[in-house]
Amino acid sequence: MADxxxxxxxxxxxxxxxxxxxxxxxxxxxxSGLGGHFGARTDPNAEDYFFMRLDExxxxxxGGAWDWPLPTPAFLRHPxxxxxxxxxxxxxxxxxRFREFTGGGPxxxxxxxxxxxxxxxxxxWARVFPGAKLLVIRRNGVDAAHSLASREAAxxxxxxxxxxxxxxxxxxxxxxxxxxxxxxxxxxxxxxxxLALADAFALWEEYVAEAEALLARHDGPTLALRYxxxxxxxxxxxxxxxxxxxxxxxxxxxxxxxxxIDRSRAFAFLESEPLLRFYGVVRGTRWMQELGYGxxxxxxxxR
Length: 303
Prior knowledge:
CATH topology: Rossmann fold
Largest sheet: 4 strands, parallel
Order of helices and strands: EHHHHHEHEHHHEHHHHH
Helix content: 40-55%
């Protein structure tokens, strides 16, 4: 456990996480609008560079990455590795570079960070910040996998001709540039695994399995939301999240914050015949069933 006298805030953080492309960005943008502090320097996905860099370091040290996450829990099961990694993270948040996150000012109100990687690194943050709040957002695996595969395909198409992306030094140089800029960190960590829809779905299963286990075993405050519920009834679901975070949740505030949310994004796969067919293939899998996505209204054609 970290020394409370050296921690940078009186209250523990809210860690917003869940599988990539499942609505964590939308949720943090809404919570930030209500007054939550989720980083002074974030990428376009609302991921704070300070915490994202540390989470990525943990995954790389474990021999994995955001799109190959399973080495991480295996690494952290070793008490020596866990203790050493937690100690390094504690020193980082107690050091001067934490000003990157705060922007130089004090953390007076509800604060936290958003990172899908935290599905796998959260046990470390719970050690560093006793009482940390865990907020997980879920989304059906077909839409999450399709969104991720589409993003990675677009990144691949944007690669310049040649083999620069295979050379270690240029990659490291671009990575360092990303840490100094406001451009998305993940632009430099594109995934060949997620180019295929089925592989992206398999990654969704890995994240969901770990997130559900995390929710079950965390002994601090937890809340799980569904992306589909958030976009379909944003005022109600945002109020739940706001109260959990200690932020204002008055009805008028919720109505104002919810304006502009695209309510059609719930179960977007229903508008695509190929995705409906894919849903027919995966609807019976464990996590689609356990999370209530095995019988989506309007998907009868996929039976």
